Automatic annotation (TrEMBL):
Database matches in Gene3D superfamilies: Metal-dependent hydrolases
Pfam family, one: A_deaminase
Binding-site residues, Zn(2+): 23, 25, 219, 299
Signal sequence interval, chain numbering: none
Organism in which the protein naturally occurs: Aspergillus mulundensis
Encoding gene, per UniProt annotation: AAH1
Cofactor notes: Binds 1 zinc ion per subunit.
Adenosine deaminase domain: residues covered: 18-353
Name of the molecule in the record: Adenine deaminase
Entry keyword Hydrolase: yes
Enzyme nomenclature, EC number: 3.5.4.2
Enzyme class: hydrolase
Length: 362
């Protein structure tokens, strides 16, 4: 399951360690074989091999995924892949398949992204998408005991109006209702192309959401420099997705550490999208030394060939962290999760128990 060179004991520990995943796009869990299967079931035409030879077969598509040249190169495949999803059960099954795999790899809590705008643009109803994903989340909670959170992303390459329409639909449907009950959608995020669109594109939405007490995160500092991270904080984000270029601004890094902002780092994604040359270049050591809180995540595992455990193992292989450092990483993931104190304490207890069990072994 995991091709890294970490020892059997480390692999066993990282597998057993109770993990939180905060950065995985459900549409990024569409494996190539499922893309072809759903395209055929739903009568969706994928690009013809003459238009794009990558779509000749499952094998050619998987092979092409190994050679992304940038974030935008990857996104061109990602936005085609998701067009095969049509029915509520397609969305439910996709989410369930991810949760099953995450559970096998030791995830106890998952906060998952989804991208409704692309589905709405091609005529899939908002409720079909949300109800399908909710169905997958509920099944994971009841059958696997994972706690889940849905985070709805706005796409930066589309006009502001499209995001505003989506925001107002979610409000009207009561899915972002934080008063007195558990909302259907627990947070809002921003993803897609980073360098190009204005840094504060979604400012009006974020300011409105902040007033309503909605949790806010944003992709920033992935390809773009640290000023994108600052812009995300200034419009109200309390979490940063990726954020690896934070190290270029020591003062901002100090602020992020002080304010206990969680970075959702995706080391294998960063390598696959050529943001860094190797996992060893991801500033894991610098973040640990500066007291910056971060979690380790898969981002788009079906496109980058690595689910969460492989990402953890890749970090261990590159940095040789200690048991105590892994404990801190796992605990910070829990502390930065959008869950209540009771669930946090439960997860912290499980981490403590697991680390104790491995103290004599590692
Ligand atoms: N959407 C899916 N994966 C993404 C990534 N790594 N960065 C920005 N947007 C994304
Ligand atoms: Zn992402």
């Amino acid at each position: 399951m995991c091709p890294s060179d970490v020892s059997t004991q480390w692999h066993a520990f990282l597998s057993a360690l109770p993990k939180c995943e905060h950065h995985v796009h459900l549409e990024g869990c569409l494996e190539p074989d499922l893309i072809f299967t759903l395209a055929s079931k739903n009568n969706v035409s994928l690009p013809s091999p003459s238009e794009n030879p990558a779509y000749t077969s499952i094998e050619t598509l998987s092979e092409r995924y190994g050679h992304f040249s940038s974030l935008d190169d990857f996104l061109s495949f990602y936005f085609i892949g998701m067009t095969v999803l049509k029915t509520q059960s397609d969305f439910a099954e996709l989410a369930w398949t991810y949760f099953k795999r995450a559970h096998e790899e030791g995830v106890h809590h998952a906060e998952v992204f989804f991208d409704p705008q692309v589905h709405l643009e091609r005529g899939v109803a908002y409720r079909t998408v949300v109800d399908g994903y909710v169905q997958g989340c509920k099944r994971a909670e009841s059958e696997l005991g994972i706690s889940t959170r849905l985070i709805m992303c706005f796409l930066k390459h589309l006009p502001l109006q499209s995001a505003q329409d989506l925001y107002h639909t979610a409000l009207k449907e009561g899915d972002l209702d934080f008063e007195g009950r558990d909302p259907v959608i627990h947070g809002l995020g921003a993803s897609s192309s980073e360098v190009g669109p204005p840094k504060d594109l979604f400012r009006p939405i974020y300011l409105s959401a902040k007033e309503r007490g909605i949790n806010l995160t944003a992709h920033a500092g992935e390809e773009g420099d640290a000023s994108y991270i600052l812009a995300a904080l200034e419009k109200g984000a309390t979490r940063i997705d990726h954020g690896i270029r934070l190290v270029e601004d020591p003062a901002l890094m100090e602020r992020i550490a002080r304010e206990e902002v969680l970075l959702t780092v995706c080391p294998v994604s960063n390598v696959q999208l050529k943001c860094v040359k190797s996992v060893g270049e991801v500033p894991i050591r610098k973040f640990l030394d500066a007291g910056v809180r971060f979690s380790i995540n898969s981002d788009d595992p079906a496109y980058f060939g690595a689910y969460i455990l492989e990402c953890y193992c890749a970090v261990q292989e590159a940095f040789g962290l200690s048991l105590a450092e892994w404990k801190t990483i796992a605990e910070n993931g829990v502390k930065g999760s959008w869950i209540g104190e009771e669930r946090k304490n439960e997860l912290l207890g499980r981490i403590d128990e697991c680390v104790k069990r491995f103290e004599g072994v590692l």
